[in-house]
UniProtKB/TrEMBL annotation:
InterPro entries linked to this entry: MFS, MFS_trans_sf, Proton-linked_MCT
The name this protein goes by in its record: Putative MFS family arabinose efflux permease
GO molecular function: transmembrane transporter activity
PANTHER family registered for this protein in UniProt: BLL3089 PROTEIN, MONOCARBOXYLATE TRANSPORTER
Ranges that cross the membrane: 12-32, 52-72, 84-106, 112-135, 142-160, 172-191, 223-250, 287-310, 350-369, 375-397
Statement: the UniProt record of this protein carries the keyword Membrane: yes
Keywords, in A-Z order: Membrane, Transmembrane, Transmembrane helix
UniProt cross-references to SUPFAM superfamilies, sorted A to Z: MFS general substrate transporter (SSF103473)
Keyword Membrane: yes
A matching Pfam family: MFS_1
Length: 409
């Protein structure tokens, strides 16, 4: 006879957890991912290394993220995100401290090994997996909410890092970053300690509401989602490294290009805010059509009217909006495509080649600018967006909305 006692209610994703994870993303992105944007030049000047060797540290970190991606995903699936994300902040803090004391290139690269591990354990993809463990398919809106915090990382940490470097030097600034990461690790205590557990056989409550069957992982879904993740991550990393150069190539001076680039952050915030306020009503598979379309529209604007102020501004804003929403859909689509109990393992394995290509993307864009010129590079970006848009279209056709499914015999 089945037991009528309901199993313990799984933990919910409340405002406190969202705020704590959001703040941790703000610190982790600012203190690790955007580190080179502020300190690459003073490191190059003081150490006497070439800019390529200095920037190579970040590429190495992305390769470490690729190598550790599957293992991190399995860890979070098995034990939840609390320990993993705290460890990420600790690894990042140790990496910053080691970088602050680096006098030789070998120590510099060892620092980036730790920072790469820290980023994989503490940035969005780990946070998304942690939320999937807590909330399952209901985690989509929380994913979009924490990206609002992370979107301010460059806005806050670029001037903060510059002010610290001016006051105490880049080495002193990195010690402050290490301290911030250590303090930020405590924010992950808000993540529930235990993961979801399936009810024991024979203990399903009599009046329990029906739950949807777990979706089996189809190879076509894996490949299509993987294509989206790989292209978006590679584009984000490659274009971010050369965004100002692309604007200058459109005919704008450096000062104007810097001003126009601020619209990228505005667009990113507006796109994510729209998802939080209204876009969460659209399932992630259909929602993913929007960022891919916005990215294609951004390149088209740059090619057609990028020499006008309105056209260049539209390029920056649309690219930022597409980039911001794509981060959310990359984390939310697996909630519908795959078994959420294995979210971390599946997504971690898929992101491995994405991180590898992201590491090579800045060099690839630099070569494209050299060989194809600015117009040719923008045209190449538009062609990539066409492929990028084809993948979510295929996913939408494979997964019609529930009302459409009921009309299919």
């Amino acid at each position: 006879m089945p037991c009528s006692t309901a199993p313990p209610k799984p933990p919910s994703i409340g405002a406190w957890l969202v705020c704590c994870l959001g703040l941790s993303q703000l610190i982790a992105w600012g203190a690790m991912h955007y580190l080179t944007a502020v300190f690459a030049q003073p490191i190059t000047v003081e150490q006497g290394w070439s800019a390529a060797w200095v920037q190579g540290g970040f590429s190495l970190a992305l390769l470490i993220m690729a190598a550790s991606s599957s293992a991190v995903g399995r860890w979070i699936d098995a034990h939840g995100g609390r320990g993993a994300m705290m460890a990420g902040c600790w690894a990042g803090a140790l990496g910053c401290a080691l970088l602050a004391s680096a006098q030789h290139l070998a120590v510099y690269y060892l620092s980036w090994v730790l920072l790469g591990l820290g980023m994989r354990l503490a940035l969005y993809d780990a946070a998304f997996a942690a939320l999937a463990v807590v909330g399952g398919p209901a985690a989509k809106r929380a994913m979009s909410q924490i990206t609002l915090f992370g979107g301010f990382a460059s806005t806050l940490f670029w001037p903060l890092g510059q002010a610290l470097a001016d006051a105490v030097g880049w080495r002193g600034a990195l010690w402050v970053y290490a301290l911030l990461l250590l303090l930020g690790s405590a924010l992950h205590l808000a993540i529930p300690r235990h993961t979801h557990r399936s009810p024991v056989a024979g203990m399903v409550p009599v009046h329990a509401p029906s739950v949807p069957k777990v979706r089996s992982t189809a190879p076509a879904d894996t490949w299509l989602y993987g294509l989206v993740a790989v292209l978006v991550l590679a584009m984000q990393t490659g274009v971010a490294a050369h965004f100002l150069a692309l604007l200058v190539g459109l005919g704008w001076d450096t000062k104007t290009a810097v001003s126009l680039s601020m619209l990228l952050g505005v667009g990113q915030f507006c796109g994510r805010a729209w998802v939080v306020a209204w876009g969460h009503r659209i399932d992630a598979i259909r929602l993913n059509l929007l960022p891919c379309t916005l990215l294609a529209g951004a390149y088209a604007m740059a090619l057609l009217i990028g020499t006008s102020l309105a056209g260049a501004g539209a390029f920056a804003f649309l690219y930022g909006a597409g980039n911001g929403i794509a981060t959310i859909t990359r984390g939310a689509m697996p909630l519908l495509l795959f078994d959420t109990a294995h979210y971390g393992r599946i997504v971690g394995a898929i992101l491995r080649p994405a991180f590898v290509l992201a590491a090579a993307a800045p060099v690839a864009v630099a070569l494209a600018l050299q060989r194809l010129g600015h117009a040719g590079t923008l045209g190449l970006g538009l062609a990539i967006c066409a492929v990028l848009l084809a993948a979510p279209v295929a996913l939408v056709l494979r997964h019609p909305p529930p009302t459409a499914r009921r009309t299919i015999p």
